[in-house]
Specification:
- It is found in: Cell membrane.
- It contains 18 helices and twelve strands.
- By secondary structure, the chain is of the alpha/beta class.
- Strand 11 and strand 12 form a beta hairpin.
- The chain starts with a strand and ends with a helix.
- The structure holds adenosine-5'-triphosphate.
- Adenosine-5'-triphosphate binds next to helix 10.
């Protein structure tokens, strides 16, 4: 890990003695140490990956785009060679009308070759234009197929986030650019090759002259692209922070707290810091890119002058006739136009290829984080008789101590089991493990004796319903918020909403179940915290799951609604097992079993009466809450 700071050469380490380095100012640099050679060697595989992607997006458009450009190149050669014949006829001795007549067949050939070339390029261009959106869509779909399947723990990993941000921000759009520029590079290369072949046919000594002009421009393009990429890579963590700050300053949800806590100056100050950093790095890169370009242009000019001087010498010493020299000038000009285009597109390909490389790297990384499917995954587990956590230990990625240590709990079919304990004691973590969202590092979660790892993850999760403490307020309609991708059934929807007390919420909305729950859209509605909580609970009831986990489902409910909800939860269990996490101990009195967690371990377990008789942690917490209600104001 190296540190760096704005205003300095981006690749010079800086100890910044005495200053605290923010986490978004530091990053791993191993990728940036790649040499030009390494990166150049990467290009062919990137091009191959891009062409593979283009082929998968549309074989027909890829074929038309490639063959159209290749054939157009062939007609360029024909046209240039025929031009030499035209010049030879026109510059020959004899009366002008005769010379023109002699040149006529070659002239017609030049016209036909030019027309055909134009037609082919137009067809190829149309195919290329069609290819772009198809490739973009394919790249994006693949990315989201992975991000929605990777294990949940990946989202606790900052490296994964950084890689995902780079892949989403630039990788996806640049995938289409790589495909587009790959084809453009083929076009440019064919154009240059056509001119080189035409020059070779005119006289073998002329061919290398064209290539001399390519070297400086190519060097400059590659160096400029690399400088740009280095800046992008270095800034990716800072950009994530900038996006986060801009969301805090311009999104609806934090808007009230930004004002209430007078956070404006603080946020703007933080934003200015990141923006300064970004600007300084960008200016530094722009300066170095401009110097590189100027150097490249100067050298290209010198090389071009050298080419024309050589041509003049060849003409003067009689190595080539005037007609060949004329056609050679034309071929060199054509070749240089193609060469400039080739260098420019190579530059873009190289640059986009680096971002596309990020996209490919992220896809590989995400594939490694896909949950391992067992060799013979059993499909949807039938409702269980027992669900056991056996000596489970779990540590979050990057955390220095376990969130759960040697935890064992048992849930019987149709039971209401409560998890209680102080903040951070591990209740939510245990619930997520029971739901199969995280895998324990030690111990096992067994569904009727079968380790959860033996089940197919998707089908397992269909048998479990988790109403998270920080449940998502989906910007969708009420119906979609409850049904959550399952087939919509009106009777079931109404029953789930009634069980959760969400029917009253729906009755108050003008569009009922079709009301859109997001004020940022026209006609959207907002709900109170408690109303949202009822909608979230209705989600839990709607799913036909063997295990339903309610993580603090009543924290935002008023006392009456809370009491009613617990009654309903008990009444609607219907053979389902309910795991209830709550701090309101009066609500868990009637649970079949209560587990008391303390610092990631089960401290006590039993029924309310058993735990009260024990006079341990549960009894203390219960008494504390009860006494708060008993206290009278003097
Ligand atoms: N994604 C995460 N990455 C790292 N550590 C985490 C993560 N989520 C929770 N923890 C840590 O794991 C421990 C248990 O957290 P957990 O959310 O399970 O507690 P809890 O009992 O549900 O708390 P609360 O009552 O406040 O909801 C805490 O120390 C917490 O800081």
């Amino acid at each position: 890990m190296r540190l760096w700071w704005r205003g300095r050469r981006a690749d010079v380490p800086d100890d910044r003695s005495g200053l605290v380095v923010a986490y978004w100012e530091s990053h791993d640099e191993h990728l940036l140490t790649a040499t030009l050679g390494t990166i150049a060697r990467r290009l062919p595989s990137l091009v191959a990956a891009a062409l593979r992607m283009a082929w998968q997006a549309s074989p027909r458009d890829t074929t038309v785009a490639l063959t159209g450009n290749l054939l157009a190149g062939v007609f360029t050669v024909f046209g240039l060679v025929a031009t030499s014949d035209v010049l030879a006829s026109l510059l020959a001795a004899g009366p002008t009308p005769e010379r023109v007549r002699d040149a006529l067949p070659s002239l017609l050939f030049v016209a036909a070759a030019t027309g055909l070339r134009g037609g082919l390029l137009a067809a190829a261009g149309w195919a290329q234009a069609r290819l772009k959106p198809q490739v973009e869509r394919l790249a994006e779909t693949r990315l989201f197929e992975l991000t929605t399947r990777v294990e949940l723990a990946a989202f606790d990993d900052h490296d994964f986030h950084n890689a995902m941000r780079r892949a989403r921000d630039s990788g996806v759009p640049d995938t289409a650019t790589v495909v587009e520029t790959t084809i453009a590079v083929v076009t440019g290369a064919v154009g240059v090759l056509a001119s080189a072949v035409a020059l070779g046919l005119l006289h073998p000594v002329l061919m290398p002259l064209l290539l001399v002009t390519a070297v400086p421009a190519g060097w400059a393009a590659v160096r400029m692209a690399r400088l740009g990429y280095r800046a992008f890579y270095r800034l990716s963590a800072a950009r994530r922070r900038k996006f986060m700050l801009s969301d805090l300053m311009a999104e609806r949800q934090p808007a009230a707290e930004v004002r209430a806590f007078t956070l404006r100056d603080y946020l703007l100050g933080q934003y200015a810091k990141v923006a300064d950093l970004e600007q300084d790095v960008q200016l530094d890169v722009a300066r170095r890119q401009a110097a590189t370009k100027a150097g490249g242009d100067l050298l290209t000019g010198v090389a071009t002058a050298g080419v024309y001087v050589t041509l003049g010498v060849l003409l003067a010493v009689g190595v080539i006739p005037l007609s060949v020299a004329g056609a050679a000038v034309l071929a060199i000009r054509t070749g240089q136009v193609s060469l400039t285009a080739l260098v420019q597109t190579m530059n873009r390909l190289y640059e986009a290829g680096l971002y596309f490389g990020d996209y490919l790297a992220f896809c590989d990384l995400a594939r490694q984080r896909l949950p391992a499917s067992p060799p013979a995954a059993a499909s949807a587990p039938a409702p269980f008789h027992r669900l056991d956590a056996e000596h489970v230990t779990f540590t979050y990625p990057g955390a220095d101590r376990p969130a759960l240590t040697d935890v064992s709990v048992t849930l019987g079919r149709g039971e209401v089991v409560a998890l209680v304990g102080e903040n951070g004691s591990g209740k939510t973590t245990l619930a997520k493990l029971l739901a199969g969202l995280y895998r324990p590092q030690q111990g096992a979660i067994r569904w009727d004796g079968v380790d959860l790892g033996a089940f197919d993850g998707e089908t397992l999760r269909r048998s479990v319903s988790v109403i998270a403490q920080d449940h998502t307020r989906w910007p969708l309609t009420v119906r979609e918020n409850v049904v959550m991708g399952r087939p919509p059934e009106d009777d079931r929807l109404a029953a789930a909403c009634a069980a959760a007390g969400a029917d009253e919420v729906v009755a108050g909305l003008p569009d009922g179940y079709d009301a859109l729950l997001d004020r940022r859209f026209r006609g959207g509605h907002d709900l109170s915290g408690g109303q949202w909580q009822r909608i979230a609970v209705a989600r839990g009831f709607y799913r036909d799951a063997a295990l339903v986990i309610f993580d603090e489902p009543t924290s935002a409910l008023d006392a009456r609604a809370e009491h009613a909800l617990f009654e309903r939860i008990r009444g609607h269990a219907d053979g389902r097992t309910i795991v209830l996490i709550t701090h309101r101990l009066a609500s868990v009195r009637y649970a079949d079993r209560i587990y008391v967690l303390d610092h990631g371990a089960v401290a006590e377990q039993g029924t309310h009466d058993e735990l009260m008789a024990r006079e341990g942690l549960y009894a203390d917490l219960y008494e504390l809450q009860a006494s708060a209600y008993r206290q009278r104001v003097p």
